[in-house]
Write a structure and sequence with these properties.
The chain is mainly alpha-helical. The chain has 18 helices and 6 strands. Helix 11 packs antiparallel against helix 12.
Length: 454
């Protein structure tokens, strides 16, 4: 294995099995650019604290910026033998500035180094994820506005309930996405990026030095508003806290649950039994045996990946639940669930944004469903309530009317008025109730809500 950041106390080489088991470069490479930024800020701190001469600081920053350029340009080659990305960067820095690189670790531990880079990664990843959510939300709103006059059957318990506007149905998911954005913004706001924790007990450098260095270095950067780097208030908490990882994966899990519910609705709507929508072939797959099949695999995978994301949340919660203060190597295992969660939900949003733009609604099939008179049962109840009949009594009357209609295979609209009056309620006026079996009349009679896209 490549040169380590530790080892003076050891007289034996690490067993190759241990090296392979403990290394993390295969996934923590994602922290590379943030580790470099943390190192640059640390150099500034060390210079202010007189641990580095100005020329030494200048040389280190130039070398670190060169490494950062390699990372951003895709020219950074990871040494797979390195223990982790932090070690790999340190070794590359040493090749550039020789033993001067050894001073960089003054008043620093990988414990605070890792959490700094992870929090920086999270801040950026959340911003990118919110952008993806907003892009999908915009595509959804376009779909809503293009189909704002369509009325569909609403469901409870997967049974016909009442007519609703499609814009209200899809607007439900718009509301969910808005909460997802709010939730992620709240989590990001509460991520405090700190310096000066050391391994756990702090460092000999004044907190004031840490408090001002980042703001000075980043003041002309586009990151200045996003990253409020400051001195740690409690060094033990800084290196042992992974609440922010758990909160992020939790927020992503909820977002994924929302995408899964939408996917399930679209899967159901695309079946022959419903036939409400047509999904573009570009977002479907076929069968290796049955040539007629057009399968909504994208939606099914979104639904399936939700379980993976839930698993990521449970894995980190379980990993953290029994750890004594402060840092323990178990905490290395927060990275893969964190990174994977961001990656999965970002891919879901991107593909769903494309799919949602292709949806076509089968208006004639939807209209067939809207002919189901049971959808208007509640409207009949309100009709009787307006005739001064108590709600529960009206509910019972209409229930018996619906049963009679089903048992006798006769539409309510075709039942003679005298039968309506004699068998069910003398308040029924056929000319009036016939008008109620209209989806437009039904949805417009509900005035207690502020509708999406109206």
């Amino acid at each position: 294995m490549a040169k380590k950041l530790w080892g003076g106390r050891f007289s034996k080489k690490t067993d190759p099995l241990v090296e392979e088991f403990t290394k993390s470069t295969n996934y923590d490479y994602k922290l590379a650019e943030y580790d470099v930024l943390g190192s640059i800020l640390h150099v500034v701190v060390l210079e202010k604290a007189k641990y580095l001469e100005p020329e030494e600081a200048k040389s280190l920053i130039e070398a670190l910026e060169a490494i950062d350029n390699d990372i951003r340009n895709g020219d950074f080659e990871i040494d797979g033998n390195s223990e982790d990305i932090h070690t790999d960067i340190q070794n590359k820095l040493q090749k550039k500035v020789q033993d001067l690189a050894l001073k960089l670790h003054t008043a620093r531990s990988r414990n605070d180094q890792v959490v700094f880079a992870t929090k920086m990664y999270c801040k950026i990843a959340i911003l990118r994820l919110i952008k993806s959510i907003l892009n999908f939300e915009n595509a959804l709103l376009v779909l809503i506005n293009e189909n704002k006059n369509i009325i569909i059957p609403g469901f409870t318990h997967m049974q016909h309930a009442q007519p609703v506007y499609l814009k209200d149905y899809l607007g439900t998911y718009d509301a969910m996405l808005s909460r997802d954005v709010d939730r992620l913004e709240y989590v990001s706001k509460n991520i405090s990026i700190t310096m000066g924790a050391g391994a756990l007990a702090g460092t000999p450098i004044s907190a004031d030095e840490y408090a001002v260095v980042a703001s000075e270095y980043l003041k002309d950067s586009d990151m200045a508003d996003s990253f409020n780097v400051k001195a740690t208030r409690n060094s033990l908490d800084s290196v042992s806290d992974r609440d922010f990882v758990i909160e992020i994966i939790n927020a992503i899990s909820i977002l994924s649950m929302h995408l899964s519910r939408l996917s399930e609705d679209l899967i159901i709507w695309s079946t022959k039994e419903f036939d409400f929508i047509e999904i573009d072939e570009a977002f479907c797959t076929g069968s290796s045996l049955m040539p007629q099949k057009k399968n909504p695999d994208v939606l099914e995978l979104i639904r399936g990946y939700t379980g993976r994301l839930y698993g990521n949340l449970v894995s980190v919660l379980t990993m953290m639940k029994g750890l004594p203060l402060t840092y323990n190597r178990d905490m290395q295992l927060d990275k893969e669930p964190l990174f994977e969660s961001f990656e999965i939900v970002s891919k879901e949003l991107n593909v769903l944004t494309g799919l949602i733009k292709t949806l076509k609604f089968n208006k004639s099939k939807i209209e067939e469903h809207l002919k189901d008179e049971s959808l208007y049962a509640t409207d009949l109840v309100y009709y009787l309530v307006d005739k001064k009949i108590a709600f529960k009594e009206a509910h019972t009357i209409v229930g018996k009317l619906i049963k009679y209609s089903i048992d006798n295979s006769i539409d309510i609209k075709k039942i003679p008025e005298d039968s309506l009056k004699k068998k069910f309620c003398d308040k029924f006026v056929k000319a009036e109730i016939v008008k109620l079996f209209d989806p437009k009349v039904s949805v417009e009679s509900k005035i207690s809500i502020q509708r999406t896209g109206k």
